[in-house]
Amino acid sequence: MKYIFMGYYDPAKHAAMTEDERNAMFDECFEYDDLRANGHSAGGEALQPAETALTLYWKNGKVATTDGPYVETKEQLGGIGVLEARDMNHAIQLMSQHPVLKYGCIFEIRPAGDMSEIMKASEQRRRQNTVR
């Protein structure tokens, strides 16, 4: 089963680290992230800082935008990943060993949503609409 994990970090803590501390953290993390060798990683990406974000939303009948993240929090979303695990307990077991946790980062883990049936039904409806 696929699980999506989101890693949050405190930019102030990250900025306060020395270059050697940051390098050591990244080295530990990238070594651990070699879950691919164990067949558990199905991908992931780091994100640029929150100030590079743009939020889209619906307002007064049209799309509106706001620079930056929609919700301001101390912790910022730093990246996402896709994990292959037997169940939530297995996903927790895999991510609880990640070295970045001891640097103050936080992981949120959620089961991936299976949209395949909803997508098939939508495809059929759209096909029927184009036939008319």
N-to-C order of helices and strands? EHHEEEEHEH
The computed structural class is: alpha+beta
Tally of strands: 6
Distance between the termini: 39 Å
Strand content: 25-35%
Indicate the multimeric state.
Answer: single chain
Largest sheet features: 4 strands, antiparallel
Q: Please state the CA-atom Rg, rounded to the nearest Å.
A: 19 Å
Shape: flat
Placed side by side, the strands forming the largest sheet appear as 2-5-1-6
Rounded mean pLDDT score: 85
Q: What's the number of helices?
A: 4
Please give the share of residues in helix: 25-40%
Low-confidence stretches: none
Walkthrough of the structure:
The structure is a single chain. The protein starts with a strand and ends with a helix. The model has no long low-confidence stretch (mean pLDDT 85). Helix content is 34%, strand content 31%. The chain has a four-stranded antiparallel β-sheet with strand order 2-5-1-6. Strands 3-4 form a two-stranded antiparallel sheet. The protein is built from four helices and six strands.
